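Q: What structure does this chain adopt?
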Amino acid sequence: SQDKIRLFVVFNRTRMKRLYFLVVLLILLGRELHAQTDTIARRIVLIGDAGQLTNGRHPVVDAVKKRIPLDKKTTVVFLGDNLYRSGLPDAQYKTYAQARAVLDSQISIADGTPAKVFMIPGNHDWENGGRGGYNAIIRQQLYVDFLGKKNVKFPPEDGCPGPRAEDLGNDVLLVMFDSQWWLHPHEKPEMESDCKCKTKDELVEQIGDIISRNSKKLVILAGHHPFKSNGVHGGFLHLSSIFSR
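A:
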């Protein structure tokens, strides 16, 4: 088959009030961005830690709009920490409008296009692991739902852990789950909830079942936190220590 799958990964992180953007473009079996677009089966754009604007704009969102075709072959996934530093506050707080503007910038990424957008929660969306995290994540989901954009979703819903599987076509399956639900030390949906998975064991089992049923597909498991880490944010290691492992 001449079909190709193109994966774009974009990360940014906030530190000391400066916003750094690390843009990594992983192009699978492709060369130029606009060349050979007729052979691309799926484009998957992964954007992490997008929770802050720079001078009222979101450079990563702007870059994606400018450089990546947002057609029916394209899926954009925000990988959590959609809002720094404590998620979406209640509307009565003075910081609400500023936080809402950040969400609006992300939600607008595919305006007027057939591209799909998914917004997965991270720890900052859960009030950075605070006691009000569950309420914060529900507020964020309700705001995204309120806008009523058919191509923008906020999975998993209702603060549940997931998993949420989305068939992207061309034998590509996107499986999304909320890793902060796993880590959150305060109130969250568990045994008394309506969530499909109510425990960590159930979540792991369900993800395993989905992967087993789709063993012949390309399965992309998407969540906020890494599955293995050497530090708070993956570790800051000397180059020699990486190659010595």
